[in-house]
Design a protein that fits this description.
Layout: E1 2-5, E2 12-20, E3 23-31, H1 34-44, H2 49-56, H3 68-80
Antiparallel strand pairs: 1-2, 2-3
Helix pairs in contact: 2-3
């Protein structure tokens, strides 16, 4: 399945997530810090959704209370619902 998520409070404008059988196949961030978001996307590809959430949930960017990885975790939590 392919999911699209509109993040809040970060530079990224959209996150596109492809999953299959509870595994993250790919992630693409639209906007944001390109190198960082590509790195996060590459690192979690192939991971179980719950494992990815536990690793990236709560990461903060410059005192915003969230970050692109945290917003990805929020998107993944919505997928799990």
């Amino acid at each position: 399945m392919i999911y699209e998520y509109e993040p809040q409070g970060v530079c990224s404008r959209r996150i596109i997530i492809e999953t299959e059988n509870d595994i993250i196949k790919s992630v693409k961030f639209i906007g944001g810090c390109d190198g960082n978001t590509q790195g996060v996307a590459a690192l979690i590809a192939g991971m179980k959704i719950d494992d990815a959430i536990s690793r990236i949930k709560g990461i903060d960017c410059k005192g915003r209370g969230t970050s692109c990885p945290d917003q990805l975790a929020k998107a993944l939590e919505k997928i799990k619902q």
